[in-house]
């Protein structure tokens, strides 16, 4: 197995070092793996995911993802737009763009015609069962529907890695199962590396590997 993520001694603090969000993370993840990350609120899970997706950089240590050295590369936009699909803890949809325009966002970094971009976004909306809502504003959607839009957006650039931060946190169990099935299908059929942060132990158990974070450190591997 080749590893797609290699993190060593990663540290990140906030508030002039008073809050140690990550306190020496060492982690390797194989390409195509399905990993869950659990840990109590404030333990550093979102911070870790942000570092893997190059949404933030650490103070110390190294992060290599999909062949990019994130501490050194000048091609961070390239990395984000080609390799990573991010499902945020809060959906982060843009309220004054339509549903389909929200899904198109990751494609703006690509050289692609507007027509092609829209077609691709509509295909993904179809996959998550929301093609008929493409033209409306996300403010008119339910929480579960918004999360499905967020997932369509995360998938539209055909990422090698999906980072999902509590993707089912605010959903009922039926919708939650549908969303999980969608993510796990992608992992199984397309060999996408799937990393899910969750508080739900039933979800966490579905992964091939479970990681627990406590006080900015990995305390447990299974
Ligand atoms: N931008 C920031 N500025 C200051 N402190 C921050 C910032 N982001 C995170 N923190 C702090 O870093 C620590 C880790 O936060 P993080 O968001 O990674 O936790 P988490 O494990 O994702 O928690 P939750 O399960 O509640 O989402 C917390 O103490 C948090 O208050
Ligand atoms: Mg979090």
The residue-averaged pLDDT reads 92
User: Could you say what the CATH architecture of the domain at 3-89 and 154-221 is?
Assistant: 3-Layer(aba) Sandwich
Taken in chain order, the helices and strands follow as EEEHEEHEHHHEHEHEE
What portion of the residues fall into strands of 2 or more residues? 25-35%
- Per CATH, the class of the domain at 3-89 and 154-221 reads Alpha Beta
Broad structural category: alpha/beta
Radius of gyration, taken over Cα atoms and rounded to an integer in Å? 17 Å
State the distance separating the first and last CA atoms.
Answer: 17 Å
> Low-confidence parts lasting 5 or more residues at pLDDT below 50?
none
Q: What is the helix fraction of residues, given as a range? A: 25-40%
**CATH topology (fold) name of the domain at 3-89 and 154-221:** Rossmann fold
Cross-sheet strand order for the largest sheet: 6-7-8-3-9-10
Number of helices: 7
